[in-house]
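Q: Mind making up any chain with structure tokens?
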Amino acid sequence: MQDQVVVSRFLEAVARLPGTCLPGPASSREIDRVEAFAGVRLPAPHRALLLAVNGLTANWGYSRIFGVGDGAQDVGPWNAHETWKFTWPERLDDYLAIGQTGWGDQFAYRISDLRRGIESVYVLDGLVMQPSDAPLAGDFCSFLEDFAARAVNPDEKVHEARRQVGDLGPGELAVFSPPPLLVGLERATQLTKMPARSAMTVGGDLKTQLLDPANQTREVAGFDTHLDERGRLRIRTRWVRQIRAVGDDDPELDESAI
């Protein structure tokens, strides 16, 4: 009963806010399916939310809680290793993403924590997929409070992004081009929309390649995109070739890329 009260108050707080979309309820069967996939049981208030609304979006698509089953950004398939986690050098399979920001920051439980009765929610930074030092929230109810506060008072970053690329659909993310890992800047004028799955796979490729210690002294010539054997968008960094002349301590840079 208390879980339903918390969820009802949360929905009352966000339902009439501009930029909020609340779909119909999920079925118990679909929630059970996701729990079987993850090998854990979702916290009771999380289940209560899904039984009231099958996920939701706020801030015109820049804040999301995932749903389950058809018609939602499904917690199950989204967390499958082969969807996007496989491109990241971090071991992400212990994290169960339950929502995200429009820039790809993931709200996530640790599966190992859930198995021990710990229901903390972390934020994994969208650029590097590193978890926050401390949990965003100690439990799902606290997470809902934080989510509602963000929905009521959107960050200026949301307004800047909307002016540049508009609202985000449930399967879209806003990404920076060129990537901040390369230029060190995050400017709204550099934003573009990309399908969420593609944005996350490309993000993993970029971190793996740009932050590899073996590449720290190399210069980027450009990027090429391609589809892998499963039709997933991937990115490959082209590097300026370095050629060391005989007897020369300094490498010559050949502007042709490899």
Observations:
- The beta strands are 56-58, 63-65, 95-101, 106-110, 122-124, 172-176, 191-195, 220-227, 233-243, 252-257.
- Residues 251-258 have pLDDT under 50 and may be disordered.
- The chain has two domains: 2-152, 212-258.
